[in-house]
Structure formats: C-alpha cells, structure tokens
UniProtKB/TrEMBL annotation:
Signal peptide stretch: 1-15
Stretches assigned to coiled coil: none
Keywords tagged on the record: Signal
Organism: Durusdinium trenchii
Protein name per its UniProtKB record: Amino acid permease YfnA
Pfam families assigned: SURNod19
C-alpha cells in the first residue's frame, strides 16, 4: 500500500513539449495590506492564440508558479514568504468573448461575482453552470487552486492522457490574494508572520445582527456543515469570528492602523510592487487526450458537493496537554464528483452513477498542518496521504532556512498525488470519500484550510451538454 502511494506522490509527469511564460499585472501593497483582486483579461502570447485559433485545442500538461520582484534593469528576484505571502490564486483561461460574457454576468449578478472571486471559483461549478446554459462549455477553463505559501514545491503536472484542455485560448484572468508581510517580526513567539492568519483588527466593523463585516456580506459566506458547526468552531459564526479570509479583503490592513500607522491607509509606508509569474507547459490535444474537471470533494468544513466554509480555526489545546498530544483533527465525507441538480451547479447533467477517474489531488493546508489523508469511505483504502516529517519527504514541507522556498517556520511545500491512465482510481460520481486533517494545536490558529484540490476525468461524457 505505502509503495503505491509514494509512487503516486513522487511521480511528476514529464512536462509537455512546449512552454510559455506570462506575468501578472503589478501587485502594489504597503506593509500589512491585503491584495484580493481579479486582474485582466490579460493577453496570452500571440503564437499561442494563433496556434489554437482554428480547430486545434491546447492541452495544458502542467504549470509553475513564482512570485518575483523586477528591477529596473529587467532582472528578477524571487520574493520570499516573509516578504509577500501568497494566500491563494485562481486562474481562468479561454476565449475573450466567453470571458467577457462571464465578467459581464458577474458585473450584473453580485452572487455570481462573489462565487467567481471566492473559493467556489476554484470548483468551477458556477462557471460550468453558466457556460452550460450558453453552450460554450469548453471555451473557458478555471483552474489553479488555493495553492498558497506552498506554491514553490507543489508541482502542477498531470499524467497522460489527462490534460486541462482549452479551446481557443486568448486571454487569462487571474485572481490573486497576497499579503505584504515585509517587516521583521518583533517579540514574536512564532517564526512566521502572524499576518498570514488574517487577524480581524480593531478597524474591522463586524455587525453580527446585520451579518456584515465593514458593511459587506462576508466573502465567501460563512457556512459550515451542521456537523462541523456543532463542534462550535469559532469560524462557523460571525459572532465568534476573529480571523481568516473574511477579514482579509482587498485593501484591508492586518495591522492595527490606529497604533501602527499615521493614517488608516498607512500612507507613510512605502508601496512595494511584486508580480506573479506563470510558466505553462502544453501540447496539442489529440483524440486520446482526456479532459480534467474539478472534483466535488473535499473541504473538511462541508459534507455536500464542493466547498462550504473553506476555512476554520484551530483552538489551542488544553493547558497541560503534552506537546506531542496537542492535535486538532477534523474529518468529513463528500462525493467525488459533481452530479445532477446540485444547487451550485443547477445545469449539471451528470448522473450520480456516471463514472470518473481521480487524476490529480493537491492537498491544501496552512501553517501548523501535520497531515491530510484521502480515504475511500467504502473500502477504507487510503488514496493519498501527505504528512509532515523532519526530512520533508512525505508531502508536507516546512522551511528551516532563509532562502525563497525554504523560509524558516513557513509551510513551503505540499506534494500532490497524480495518477495516469492505467492506475487512476475509478468511482461513480456519488462515491463517498473521507478526508482527515490533523493540525498541531499547541497554539491557536485562525483561518486554516484543509482541502483536497482535486480533479477527476469523466470516463465518458454521454450527456455532458444538453
Ligand atoms: C521552455 O521552452 C524553451 C524553448 O521555447 C526551452 O528552451 C526551455 O528549456 C523550456 N523551459 C522549460 C522549463 O522546459
Ligand atoms: C518587544 O519587546 C521589547 C522588550 O521587552 C519592548 O521594549 C518592545 O516594545 C516590544 N516591541 C513590541 C512591538 O511589542
Ligand atoms: C472501515 O472502517 C470502519 C471504521 O473503522 C469500520 O466500521 C468498517 O467496517 C470498515 N470497513 C471495511 C470495509 O473495512
Ligand atoms: C533542514 O531540513 C532539511 C530537510 O528538508 C534537513 O536535511 C536539514 O538538515 C535541516 N537543516 C537544519 C539546519 O536543521
């Protein structure tokens, strides 16, 4: 069993034959400030657009992510996590016309817009549903993932014949959530910036009766499964919410600006500028290429298809608990695939009994995460398991140095499980999968996540579009 698992973990499929690199628009932040913005549409290179303008489809085989600072002479420097912290990103790529239809719809429909920018954007369900209605289902692909601090050691490589297939790619629309963490820690009991846990500062106006933060609905909405809410996790209710994504909106500061700044915008602080850099690996799709689509699993705060609260808090363990015994464990069971008439995907015509192969499972955890396990709920077989270890060899990596990718005390890597055509586990869409997440609770944490950012591939697509 372990052998098969480590094979899946370690197999990094060869990159496709070709690659291209694109940069984001600048991300400008002062210390303590949050960027949570959708950019673009940004143009893809002309040779990509023209290659796939007619009948060929682009098959993305993987991509690399980097955060860089550009010097006046054009040279690049890698940005460390204790300089700027990437909380997460979401990518869309496709035909400009389709992208504009989606953005137009988002401008008219607040809920749809929130779903795109929020974590539901990553599940693609709202876009899928909208495009199915339009009949443009393959002209826009949303992918990327929550992959945050661990983006440097989180190889996005898919095993043949599974590919992210895009028809007529012309533009990309990235959403980035970044925090400027660029000040030395003072008197801190932890080696990482406390800002990455998005503390709700005294400046946040939380109105429990109105259900708002700073006059707006929390985004994403606060909503845990009944079973997880019953554990009393502070993150499941606005009245007990003290930190996390909902206090981490665009332009917000994660420091007490009354005490630490001259004005609410900290305008005396210098504004810094960084860029995200993506290198995509691709080939032409062939008749053998099989499409990837988002899985309906797994977020430990939910029990239905897709993500629910997405984040939660890890309360500190009881005083006197021996250090190695301070563990916070959450489990849940969710179906592997999206299927018919799920509210998040009302136009989905997949049947519960349709078959899918699991092809890619990227764990997503925050600092203090110790283990994430994906288990077949029917057979109890472990499908993917990552855990932290001193040698960083079991899928969860922590830094112990100073260089980019090895920042001391930060979670610096999470290795996905990847399956190729022969070995991909095959299930009905409604097959239950269990996720078990373990965090070190020797201190408290806000806004942690325990997700599998997973892709499945339909075994056949009989009534994919109606
Ligand atoms: C990207 O493609 C160029 C040729 O266009 C090649 O020289 C380079 O090695 C490739 N990079 C990677 C990382 O594969
Ligand atoms: C850090 O500790 C020193 C010594 O106890 C104290 O003088 C200083 O004000 C502290 N700094 C902060 C930001 O709390
Ligand atoms: C799976 O584990 C559960 C809980 O330990 C147990 O009740 C069940 O019988 C197991 N199922 C199989 C097929 O081993
Ligand atoms: C840092 O971690 C690596 C494993 O990733 C280990 O080989 C190395 O000895 C560690 N260095 C220190 C100074 O602890």
């Amino acid at each position: 069993m372990w052998k098969a698992l480590s094979l899946a973990l370690l197999r990094v499929a060869a990159a496709g034959e070709w690659n291209f690199t694109v940069y984001s628009a600048p991300i400008k932040l002062r210390y303590g400030e949050v960027y949570n913005n959708q950019q673009g549409p940004l143009k893809l290179p002309e040779h990509i657009v023209s290659r796939y303008a007619e009948d060929k489809e682009m098959a993305i085989t993987g991509f690399d992510v980097e955060m860089v600072r550009q010097a006046a002479d054009g040279s690049e420097e890698l940005v460390k996590l204790n300089d700027h912290y990437l909380h997460h990103y979401i990518l869309s790529m496709g035909r400009i016309e389709t992208m504009n239809k989606v953005l137009q719809h988002a401008a008219e429909d607040k809920m749809f817009a929130r779903m795109l920018r929020g974590c539901h954007g990553m599940t693609r369900a709202p876009i899928h549903s909208f495009l199915t209605q339009l009949g443009d289902n393959e002209d826009l692909v949303t992918f990327g993932s929550a992959a945050g601090a661990e983006y440097r050691h989180n190889p996005q490589r898919y095993s043949a014949p599974f590919r992210r297939v895009i028809k007529s790619p012309q533009v990309w629309v990235p959403t980035f959530h970044v925090i400027n963490t660029n000040k030395p820690l003072e008197n801190s009991s932890v080696p990482y910036s406390p800002l990455l846990e998005c503390p709700c500062t005294p400046q946040r106006k939380i109105d429990v009766a109105a259900g708002t933060i700073d006059g707006r609905d929390p985004d994403p909405p606060i909503r845990c499964s009944p079973s997880f809410a019953a554990t009393g996790n502070p993150s499941c209710s606005l009245s007990t919410y003290v930190g996390g994504w909902r206090c981490c909106e665009n332009g917000v500061f994660l420091i007490d600006t009354d005490k630490q700044c001259k004005d609410p915008e900290c305008s005396e602080e210098p504004e810094d500028e960084v860029f995200m850099k993506y290198t995509f690996y691709y080939e032409d799709a062939t008749p053998e290429t099989r499409h990837m689509e988002p899985s309906a699993c797994c977020d430990v705060t939910g029990t239905t298809q897709g993500f629910e609260n997405i984040e939660y808090d890890v309360p500190v363990c009881a005083a006197g608990t021996p250090p190695g015994k301070c563990l916070h464990i959450v489990e849940t069971v969710q179906p592997v695939g999206y299927y018919y008439r799920h509210p998040k995907s009302p136009n989905d015509h997949h049947k519960a009994t349709d078959l899918v192969d699991i092809v890619f499972a990227a764990p997503h955890l925050h600092v203090a995460g110790l283990s994430l396990e994906l288990i077949d709920e029917v057979t109890n077989k472990t499908l993917c398991h990552v855990y932290a270890s001193k040698d960083n060899a079991h899928g969860i990596m922590y830094g112990n140095g100073t260089e980019a990718g090895n920042e001391n005390g930060y979670m610096t890597g999470l290795l996905p499980c990847v399956w190729g055509g022969e070995e991909a586990p095959r299930f009905q869409r409604n097959h239950p999968l269990r996720t078990r997440a373990v965090y070190d609770s020797s201190r408290g944490h806000t806004g942690v996540m325990s997700l599998w950012l997973m892709d499945v591939s339909p075994v056949s697509e009989p009534d994919f579009m109606i």
